[in-house]
């Protein structure tokens, strides 16, 4: 009888390596395909009906009913319904047409930021995107913290909440944020079904609350007389009422928070069978239905909730510490439908507010990797979901502690982020309409831009905290982005290198005489004298073997602000010189990428020849970082050194 001895178990990976592997899981996958509700679905994904995707917008947009009526009552007092009417008019006549246009111009979920990126070339466009990302981060982060803070208010004010929770809003908010982060660290998969259930339940409960409130008003019409009498006593003329409503409505602007989310979820909308990547007509049509339906539904709820809360809730209850502060509709649910129904309503509100934070987190995870890694302005690990989740979660914790989980104090920052994104969207729509020679549309969008500009300025003047927080986000993004760009400046940044037929023929002909000899040439006159003098000086100074053929490599910088790019090498014969021409974002990085591809293509290590450039090293470094040129020889060598650690396989660099 023989025994078979089992193979020893492989040694366990070190804890640090396993932790790093878990943290950077999915790093090699496309950043936009993270497991979040706003992520770009895989190619085989057929999408969902527009009304189901609307619920993804709804967890952000509709959940504002949890706190919007209370904030409106605090901002406008007895004039809350009139200020809400102004907000509804701006929603239906301003934000809705703008974002219907954005859906057409940017149908892949990039939103207005991508439209504006195309307007400005070179570094100006990149800087504009970074600034807008700062405001977008303000919007999404405050969505998380504000929603969690309002959810904690519903927990604390519920009559069945244990006494231990009273006054513990800050800790409850932090726990909700931690739970949100845990969900994304675990892996957030399909969200459509959850969103549909939450939005359907929440809106149905709100219909019950508002219908009951309407019955209470109709049963006791004296409340209308009391409200009207108090309002007219404070504001004697209709013009005064309209004027005050116009002045205070900017404080209600967070009631339009779902539009940017609406265009972010566009890749999830099911299109027509005839849709193409360039012309997804069905997806655009579905998204427009989504935006229109959401705006109409929300407008109805905003008006009815404003009327109900203003007529039925004493004004002092909206103040800080009042029973209706941050939870006006929940107050009515408990007051008129009993504690049991009120508790069900609280649970529904807590769930949708918490999920609104999940929607905002997913929006950040979809937005940041879409731009910063492409600009070289984020480390490579920024393409992974979990490190970003931890960073966003830490920021959310800090803001929650800073504002002590107060809904009222965070509303200004929230409105600032929302309004800047809407202003950028309306401006982008104005420019797009003008470029397409749609004069009437351009005038209309221009007028909307002016209104959003006024709304933003008014909001910033009255509540500057929002701008301060946004500026902190912008400063943080700018500093980290440019630090990352400098740190990654010496990377091999070509995505793909290809050679046309003429280039292939010239390479094969030169290869017959041995390893390739490549002369880096800055194209100037490109006449016969230039190539003859360049070849003679290089053979003389760098001792290129006599008789060996040489290839000239000429790089033209297309846009030095780009980071990664595809390289298309074209061959050309000119005055007897064999030339390889290519456009890239930086001279040194492009030369290094072409040399590495030549090595792979030929199986032999190529040689490249340079001349030294006169000038101060610091000025050359700045020119390299900003303009993509500078002192090319040492930078090319450094890029090659980092790209190929084996000196035997590294392309040879010669300088004379």
TrEMBL record:
Transmembrane regions listed in the UniProt entry: 71-99, 120-144, 164-185, 192-215, 227-249, 290-313, 347-368, 388-407, 413-433, 440-461, 467-484
Keywords: Membrane, Transmembrane, Transmembrane helix
The name this protein goes by in its record: Amino acid transporter
């Amino acid at each position: 009888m023989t025994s078979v001895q089992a193979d020893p178990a492989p040694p366990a990976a070190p804890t640090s390596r396993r932790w790093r592997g878990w943290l950077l899981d999915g790093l090699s996958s496309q950043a936009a395909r993270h497991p979040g509700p706003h992520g770009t679905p895989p190619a085989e994904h057929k999408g969902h009906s527009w009304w189901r995707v609307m619920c993804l917008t709804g967890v952000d947009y509709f959940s504002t009913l949890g706190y919007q009526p209370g904030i409106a009552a605090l901002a406008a007092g007895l004039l809350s319904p009139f200020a809400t009417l102004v907000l509804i008019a701006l929603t239906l006549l301003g934000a809705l047409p703008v974002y219907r246009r954005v859906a057409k111009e940017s149908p892949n979920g990039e939103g207005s930021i991508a439209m504006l990126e195309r307007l400005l070339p070179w570094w100006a466009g990149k800087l504009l995107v970074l600034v807008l990302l700062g405001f977008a981060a303000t919007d999404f982060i405050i969505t998380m913290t504000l929603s969690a803070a309002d959810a904690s208010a519903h927990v604390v004010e519920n009559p069945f909440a244990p006494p231990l929770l009273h006054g513990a809003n800050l800790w409850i908010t932090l726990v909700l944020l931690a739970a949100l982060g845990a969900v994304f660290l675990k892996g957030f998969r399909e969200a459509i079904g959850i969103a549909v259930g939450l939005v359907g339940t929440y809106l149905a409960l709100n219909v019950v609350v508002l219908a009951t409130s309407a019955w209470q008003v109709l049963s006791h019409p004296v409340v209308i007389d009391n409200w009207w009498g108090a309002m007219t006593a404070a504001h004697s003329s209709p013009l005064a009422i309209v004027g005050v409503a116009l002045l205070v409505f900017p404080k209600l602007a967070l009631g339009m928070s779902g539009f940017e989310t609406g265009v972010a979820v566009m890749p999830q909308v099911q299109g027509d069978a005839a849709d193409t990547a360039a012309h997804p007509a069905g997806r655009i049509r579905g998204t427009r239905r989504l935006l229109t339906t959401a705006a109409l539904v929300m407008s109805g709820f905003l008006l009815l909730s404003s009327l109900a809360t203003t007529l039925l809730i004493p004004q002092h209850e909206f103040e800080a510490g009042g029973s209706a502060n941050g939870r006006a509709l929940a107050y009515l649910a408990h007051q008129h439908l009993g504690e049991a129904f009120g508790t069900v309503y609280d649970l529904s509100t807590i769930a949708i507010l918490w999920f609104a934070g999940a929607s905002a987190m997913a929006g950040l995870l979809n937005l940041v990797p879409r731009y910063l890694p492409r600009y070289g302005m984020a480390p490579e690990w920024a393409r992974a979901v979990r490190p970003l989740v931890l960073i966003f979660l830490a920021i959310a914790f800090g803001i929650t502690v800073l504002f002590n989980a107060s809904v009222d104090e965070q509303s200004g920052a929230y409105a600032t982020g929302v309004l800047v994104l809407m202003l950028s969207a309306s401006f982008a729509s104005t420019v797009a309409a003008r470029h397409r020679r749609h004069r009437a549309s351009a005038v209309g969008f221009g007028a909307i831009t002016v209104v959003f500009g006024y709304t933003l300025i008014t909001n910033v003047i009255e509540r500057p905290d929002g701008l301060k927080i946004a500026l902190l986000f912008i400063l943080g993004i700018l500093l980290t982005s440019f630090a990352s760009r400098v740190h990654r400046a010496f990377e091999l940044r070509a995505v793909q290198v290809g050679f046309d037929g003429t280039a292939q023929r010239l390479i094969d002909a030169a290869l017959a005489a041995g390893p390739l000899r490549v002369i880096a040439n800055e194209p100037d006159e490109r006449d016969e004298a230039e190539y003859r003098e360049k070849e003679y000086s290089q053979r003389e100074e760098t001792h290129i073997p006599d008789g060996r053929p040489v290839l000239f490599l000429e790089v033209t910088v297309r846009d030095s602000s780009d980071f990664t790019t595809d390289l298309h090498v074209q061959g050309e014969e000119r005055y007897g010189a064999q030339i390889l021409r290519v456009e890239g974002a930086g001279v040194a990085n492009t030369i290094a990428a072409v040399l590495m591809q030549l090595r792979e293509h030929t199986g032999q290590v190529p040689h490249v020849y340079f001349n030294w450039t006169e000038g101060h090293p610091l000025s050359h470094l700045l020119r390299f970082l900003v303009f993509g040129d500078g002192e090319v020889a040492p930078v090319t060598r450094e890029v090659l050194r980092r790209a190929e650690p084996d000196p035997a396989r590294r392309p040879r660099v010669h300088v004379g």
